[in-house]
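Weekly modeling sync, notes
Attendees: S.R. (lead), two postdocs, one rotation student

Agenda item 3: backlog of single-chain predictions. S.R. asked that every request posted to the team notebook include the full sequence so nobody has to chase files. The rotation student volunteered to paste the first one in as an example of the format we agreed on. Action items at the bottom.

Example entry:
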Amino acid sequence: SVVLIVSFVTFSLTKLLPGDPVVVILGPQYSNEEVRAAVTADLGLDKPFIEQYGSYVWGAIHGDLGKSYTSKFETTELLGQKLPASHELMILAQILSLFISIPLAMYSAYRANSRADKAITTTTFGLISLPGYAFAVFLVYLFALQLKWFPAIGYSPLSDGIVDNLRSIALPVSVLVAGLTAVYTRLLRSDLIATLQEDFVLMARSKGLPTWHILLRHALRPSSFSLLTVFGIQFGTLIGGSVILEQFFVIPGVGSLAIESILKRDYLVVQGVVLVIA
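Predicted structure, as returned to the notebook:
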């Protein structure tokens, strides 16, 4: 139902945007009315709105999201070309953020109200408050322009070598990891603090079990339910949320495809991208 609502809203909004797909295809100087009418009929733009939307939904159900007005490629083909870069950013960011946030949260919860805990809490709060694009500018200035460790923009696919690939996505992944790690750390820390007060944890302590054993075997699993829920939600959020980063770092992902399609008035591709993100 959510996808259906999103598709209807997106389809409706694209009809309200300025610009004419026929003009995009033929060019603004083309004035032959018969040809314009033929292209309009071929695209189905002469039909009533509800009929146009019904045809679009029927095609989407069968995997047909239409063709790009400008490149003539199928929208699904364009998405297939752009999704790998977006997926790589998303998966690496998620994995790295978990590897960082889980140990931080466990140490912070175990040392609650200590200086280390306050430092971790303050840092994560600051990262949550910091806009991603501002952090991206800082990383580019420091690591690309000053230290010259990583390229400022561009993307190297895995086919060019894993080293070049990782160097090209190091900065955008770092921006995503910073925000995710802050959220995961604060969430898991609060749940761990509550779990460490439970009777079964106190019983484990009374048996003289090592601290690391209690945290890993007794406290972590019951404290991870909220973390796993948010972790799953973030997969969808990252696909749409990396639009600005992909444009900033010139990464050929779904976000860049969305921006390019909007600028070109390529409405079918815009609708397909929004539908996939939803």
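Discussion: group reviewed the output briefly. The longest helix spans residues 75-110.
Action items: rotation student to repeat for the remaining queue; S.R. to check formatting next week.
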